[in-house]
Amino acid sequence: MLDPVAAQLVVNARVLQLSWLPAAPDEATALVPAALRPRADGEVFLCQYVVDDGSQTSGFGAFSLTYLGLALDGLDAPPAGDIPGGGWWTHYLASSPRVRAYAAARGAPAAPGVTRLELRGEQLTAETRVDGTPIIRTVARVGHTGSRMCSGHHRFLTIRDGELLTADYPYVAEPVSPFEIESVEFLTPEHPVYALRPANPLVIRGGLYSPRVSFAYPPGPHALDDPSAVADLGSGLGSGLPSGS
Predict the structure, then answer these.
(1) Is 217 exposed, middle or buried (0-12, 13-18, 19+ CB in 10 A)?
(2) Residues 6+ apart with CB under 8 A from 87
(3) d(CA 212, CA 56)
(4) Calpha distance 73→147 (Å, rounded)
(5) Measured between alpha carbons, how far is 19 from 169 in angstroms, rounded to an integer?
(6) CA 144 to chain centre
(7) Nearest Cα residue to 126 out of 195, 75, 187, 83
(8) What is the DSSP string of 231-245?
């Protein structure tokens, strides 16, 4: 098992990330601990990504991952067109037992899941499966990378043995342009992720696709000594892609 305190690096992952307003805000925000404050609109974020080769990581090996969660009030919101600056993971579905064990030891709600990203022409389809059953399918219209870069740090909170933990995740991404979300489907009402399904009509708050995203799990994470201080957690965070990935 990887040391959960040690930092880990991933380079050139294929990443689709977006956020939306939920169909049932009360269902969504109920997944956040009472000590934390979700945004009033219940904004949900989703990341679906694939690391194709073990040489792209410092110790994880090849894997795929989908994580979802809620943006927290007090974490700096990025400019329009980008995505949430961080928040609370509600689901963390990884294909690799090594990644799951590492993330779970850091307090992430790690569980098995397989994510696939398929690009045909300008259409990108991202699908997340659990036990072979599709639970989330996202379809986007994507272009090509150019000269634009996104970089910074984002903060995610987890809980381990009843203790709130926090860590800042640095990232560098090369987003494509143009980029447009065509659909987000939650396919399995019986699965717990269904509480985070998007409203109809779909209200996208931001997102991006990049075939090259590099990010790190920093040393730690560290205890959040004063949960009421969550309103101050956004200071100094960048805008763009929340890694945590």
Answers:
(1) buried
(2) 38, 45, 69, 70, 71, 72, 75, 156, 157, 242
(3) 11
(4) 32
(5) 18
(6) 22
(7) 187
(8) GGTTTT--SB-----
Which residue has 């600056």 as its token pair?
A: 85
The beta strand positions in 60-109, using DSSP E, are 63-71, 86-94
CA angle at 173 for the pair 167 and 174, rounded to the nearest 5°: 170
* pLDDT tens digit at each of 245 positions of the chain: 899 999 999 999 999 999 999 999 999 999 999 889 999 999 999 999 999 999 999 999 999 999 999 999 876 544 444 555 579 999 999 999 999 999 999 999 999 999 999 999 999 999 999 999 999 999 999 999 988 898 888 889 999 999 999 998 899 999 999 999 999 999 999 999 999 999 999 999 999 999 999 999 999 898 876 444 444 433 323 333 433 34
With 0.85 as the threshold, say if the pTM is over it. Answer: yes
Residue found by looking up tokens 């779909």 in the block:
202
